[in-house]
Design a protein that fits this description.
With 470 residues, the chain is of the alpha+beta class. It folds into two domains: 325 residues, Peroxisomal Thiolase, Chain A, domain 1 (3-Layer(aba) Sandwich); 80 residues, OB fold (Dihydrolipoamide Acetyltransferase, E2P). The chain has twelve helices and 20 strands. It has a nine-stranded mixed beta sheet with strand order 5-4-6-7-1-8-11-10-9, with helices on both faces. β10 and β11 form a beta hairpin. The mean pLDDT is 94.
Length: 470
């Protein structure tokens, strides 16, 4: 039986008050705030962050596959899972796959991973999900959506077992987005909720309970995805669950992060789960998936894993709606053309994606980029490729106003970072205030999108201040 060995989550640092969004358009606002991905983030970079959180304390080379679920992949024709696996420094002889087309892509990927484990074709598979969907400006969708990512490591061994998978399929009324659409579209909300969401979610949940011989009172938590608390309550009542059994759907704190919501909620439930507890997971989207999670023992804290709660505590408020418009590029502006070399990107992928450097066999100096001659002792061709640490401190920095041929009023910090285990990196800073940068400041590397020169996404590492709890 497939087990859950670890879990992780990622929520962007920035939040935007829904009241601020309503004020910008002079329309009513729903309570709470939504998470907003930075301008250099997308579903792929957030998936990397969630994957790193899930693999805290786990050797990535021990994992046999990576499945990526999203409805907002950066490419229509190019696999994202392979890029994510490289950034996580996983082996090359692994199974990678992208799952999309539906908000329940994450649980479809989970079931595929569990089947692979049960069949013996893989010993462990990392399932990551992320979404960065856009709601049309001035619409309620713009307020209700949010950005985020979740990850679950499925293995032969682990503290929690998954069983009783059941799916409800078929054409359902509900949200959609065509390939040529930028924004999420929908029909009449009440009809979508009643006939698209409630019926399929309740049917899938009841089928699992019946299959496993479970009563509603036997469940510690119902991890049930929903667009809003009211529709969640309708499904819960139909299943016989009370409000105290429901996992938070992140409505007030994050918004709806699409395909990622199921894994983010599951991560939140597993953080608090105790030995012997049972969780019913239901995920909707053009039908519904449901399964049971039985926790044999509580998950032990992992050094370096922030989880859902840790990311919820770390946030920075966007000052206004205009900043959100800038992040999501909702206002067209002329930008200088950027050029990139696909050959160089491929040639240096071990340095750029895997973040590998070199260590001199003679003097032990760690260096980046990988040279042929040691910069410390002058030894030639005596360096071994090594994985670089992702935390360090600022050695020196500049604040540059001229970036990419444009003059920026807010400067971009460029830092020289001394890594904890040796070596130095020259990186741009993100998710931070340029005026707060100082020598000796602790920072961590974060995988981001640099630009789209020559028509493809150029990913690389930046750094950000080590977040502190709000």
């Amino acid at each position: 039986m497939a087990k859950i060995a670890s879990f992780g989550a990622y929520i962007p640092l920035f939040r935007l008050s829904r009241q601020e969004m309503g004020n910008a358009w002079g329309v009513p606002a729903v309570p709470g705030e939504r998470a907003v991905a930075n301008a250099d983030e997308d579903s792929l970079t957030m998936a990397v962050a969630a994957g790193l959180d899930c693999l805290a304390g786990i050797d990535p080379s021990s994992v046999d596959g990576l499945f990526f679920a999203t409805t907002t992949a950066p490419y229509s024709e190019k696999q994202s899972a392979g890029v994510i696996a490289a950034a996580l420094d996983m082996r090359r002889d692994i199974n990678t796959a992208d799952f999309g087309g539906s908000l329940r892509a994450a649980t479809t990927a989970l079931r595929a991973a569990a089947d692979a484990i049960d069949s013996g074709s893989a010993g462990s598979i990392l399932v990551v999900a992320a979404d960065c969907r856009l709601g049309e400006p001035e619409s309620m969708w713009e307020q209700l959506l949010g950005d985020g990512a979740g990850a679950v490591l499925i293995s032969k061994e682990g503290p929690a077992a998954m069983r009783g998978f059941h799916s409800v399929a078929g054409e359902q009324v509900g949200a959609w987005r065509r390939s040529e659409d930028r924004y999420v579209r929908s029909f009449e909300a009440k009809a979508e909720t009643q006939y698209g969401y409630v019926q399929s979610a309740a049917q899938a949940g009841k089928a699992v309970l019946e299959k496993e011989g479970m009563a509603p009172g036997d469940l510690a938590k119902g991890v049930i995805t929903a667009m809003d608390p009211r529709s969640l309550g309708t499904v819960a009542r139909s299943l016989g669950l009370d409000a105290g059994q429901l996992q938070d759907i992140l409505f007030l704190s994050v918004g709806n992060p699409g395909a990622a919501l199921a894994l983010m909620m599951l991560a939140g439930a597993l953080e608090q789960a105790k030995a012997g507890e049972k969780l019913l997971v239901i995920n909707h989207g053009d039908g519904a998936d449901a399964f049971l999670v039985e926790v044999a023992e509580a998950f032990a804290p992992a050094a370096g894993r922030k989880g859902l709660v840790g990311h919820l505590l770390q946030k920075r408020n966007l000052p206004n709606y205009t900043a959100y418009v800038h992040f999501r590029k909702l206002m067209e502006r002329e930008e200088p053309p950027l050029r990139s070399s696909a050959v160089t990107y491929w040639r240096d992928s071990r340095m750029e994606l895997n973040l590998h450097g070199a260590k001199c066999r003679k003097c032990g100096a760690v260096q980046y980029p990988i040279p042929r001659v040691c910069g410390e002792c002058g030894t030639r061709d005596e360096l071994d490729e090594v994985k670089l640490d992702k935390t360090g401190t600022v050695y020196t920095f500049t604040l540059d106003h001229l970036v990419g041929g444009q003059y920026l009023n807010v400067p971009v910090p460029r830092l020289v970072v001394d890594l904890e285990t040796g070596g130095r990196l020259f990186l741009e800073m993100t998710d931070g205030d340029p005026q707060e940068v100082k020598v000796g400041m602790p920072v961590e590397a974060t995988f981001r999108r640099l630009h789209e020169g020559s028509g493809f996404h150029n990913y690389y590492w930046k750094c950000r201040p080590l977040p502190t709890a709000a």
